[in-house]
Amino acid sequence: MIKDNALNSFDFLRKQALKLGAADAKVIPVEKIVIENRVVLKCQLGCEKYGKTLACPPYAPTPEKFRKIVSEYHVALFMKFEAQAQINPELIKYLSKTEDPNTPKDIKFKVEKFWTDWKNDEQRTRDTVVQLEKLAAGKGYLLAVGLVSGSCTLCEKCNVERGVCIHPMMKRFSEEGVGVNVKATAKKAGLKFTLPFKNNPETFALLLID
Length: 210
What we know:
Strand content: 5-15%
């Protein structure tokens, strides 16, 4: 495992992540990244975005392949973001029911606003990861690459039929989609993971550095 003094040499990335809006960030050895096959199984059985974006399964690297990729790195920056989108217990049960004609209009409006705000939050997180990649590359870490939580929202409809992303410079694979157990990784990194969400949901991102 990499020594603490080596981890400290990447503190410039942690500080920049905080400046760019991360609520917390830790530089960790890659051994603390928890990768599990069952996370992708959950994608297959519990996510409506499965197979609908090129940043998610089955188009993302498998957990087996991602483990091999991670083994070629030594250090990672694990980040937590607090969304500006706000949620409350009243809305949670309606999040996937905006098309239900029985959904009250005021609730539907609040849910639609939540998803709009959430998409903007995802964009900010992705932009932060891309900026940190560039910062790392500028310091000589040319193979730095980031991942974000959740499915890709760059396009209203992903170009999966042709199998070619039309925003390759901005697309980032989903952490969960490659098998990262975000909750377990947060615990190992020493970052608080709150579930169920309260008011402003949390989201996480990962930057592999070497």
